[in-house]
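Q: Joint fold for the lines below.
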Amino acid sequence: MNLKPETLAQIDEVIPRYPRKRSAALPLLHLVQEDQGYVSREAIEWIAGKLEVAPIAIYELVTFYPMFRQEPIGRRHIKVCRTLSCALMGGYRTCREFEQQFGTHAGGTSADGEVTVEFVECLASCGTAPVVMIDEELHEKVDISRARELSARIKAEAKK
Amino acid sequence: MTMPEQRRLIFKHIDEAGYTPDLACYLRNGGYEVLRKAVQRKPEDLIDEVKKSGLRGRGGAGFPCGVKWTLVDRKSGKPIYLVVNADESEPGTFKDRYIIHQDPHQMIEGIMISCWANNVKQAFIYIRGEFPEGARILERAIAEARGANFCGPNVLGTGYGCEIHVHRGAGAYICGEETGLIESLEGKRPYPRIKPPYFPAVLGLYQCPTIVNNVETLCHVKHIVDMGGAAYAQIGTPNNTGTRILCVSGHVQRPGYYEFEVGKVTMGQLLNEVCGGPLPGRKFKAVIPGGSSAKVLKFGERFKGKRKVGAEMAEYDWSLEDVPMDFDSLALIGSMGGSGGVIVMDDSVSMVEALGNINAFYAHESCGQCTPCREGSLWMKRITARMVHGDARPQDGELLKSVADQIAGRTICAFGEACAWPTQSFVAKFGDEFKEYAALKTDGKEAAQPLV
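A: Joint structure:
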């Protein structure tokens, strides 16, 4: 495993927080995914070794929790909320706009590998619907014109 | 009845200009004074205050907080854990987000008072994975609080030590269910545990006694200990004490979060006056009053019967607009206050399509442990999706209901009810729309506002 020294330091810091090592599984998966972009098979075995559990005990988490992925995605990650409050205010159209802007479909990545668009369940900001998370930042009231602005910004940033 | 003013207890500083989430700002506003006083008192006294306050959990079930604390097994000799449910995953709910992001120390003070009261030495905040910034804010706030001895090895010089750790989820709704959350915190799939025997108060985290409380609930504890349980019980209405944050989303002019004394605002006042009424040219059609799993209510419905008012039974005859927004009144009319998430739909919405949206959510989020829920939630999603995108049949409403009826009551956790109630209530109240959907739907053309 080729993890950054900061990641390794954080991993060593987080494990002793818990009375039992296995509890650190989710934090370790987050840290490894942030470091590498996804959770590889090698990473699953490495985490299992670190927490002294069988690899299946980590693998079953990766396949269950929606935020973990086993394949790399685009450098930028757009998550559009699909659930009712956002849908009532135009979430489906917002998602379609992002799909068109980046020439992909929900769950897919743009041809240049830059942007992944995902249609996700409730992001808990229903009062400012429709909402979108771009990487770790929440954007509120993202109608079609706002989606176009955000897309333009992402495209401009990619050219730099 | 005149329009009640908001009473901002928990949201006092939310959106206040110049109010920042750091410790210095919190201290300038009287922060941690209640904790200072609390640690001078006996833990049993504090539990008593919470019992007297009548505080009911703000996460969804509305279970009395003082009773929950009383059920904790204190004789086992095992450590007692406090787990803060910051998973905020019920669609339509978005209150804890603002506490976490804007006033984290209020939450930490509430946690520490609760830990002191229950002799807890280790607390975990389980925060949903989709709040990465919130998790960082909490980490910073805990470090600040620890530096000032509001938590950590020696709380305010008392010799009592308690650590708080932030634990991030990873996008699974079922982690909001308390035993699923505990499994997740143990590093497993969040499969809810069967009760009995796994009541968290006895066999919770690591098989130790565990208290699981919602973020807002713990903030209320701070205010209860501050003013005293009896004084807090004067706020709100009997059996529905305190204030409550109502989150309004969907088709109103002013969606958002509003804090009222419980039961002092009616559905009509909330939606028409506070939230400014329907969007231009529209009429209200339906509302889900307590998060997307609560049973839907229909405008135009009337509710009649007898209810307890104080010690006496009184007749009531309410339109939906007359219903007070409290736990008991919403339960009385067949729905629930739940998590306080009020989702409003106007006359532009097809109820078949709205149900299709909800069904897709629950099918995605079923943990898969119990067959009726795993299969049933998927069937309901498929039926509504077929109705919208393929052939709709007049008997589909009955078919949906028959599936839903076979889920509720047959599962380990309340997710079975959560996924069945929308279908049961949508079909019961808007059955004609399900029968006529084939004729109603715009053939081949897409809906103005796609929901499925």
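Q: Anything notable?
A: The first helix of chain B runs from residue 23 to 28. The longest strand of chain B covers residues 243-250.
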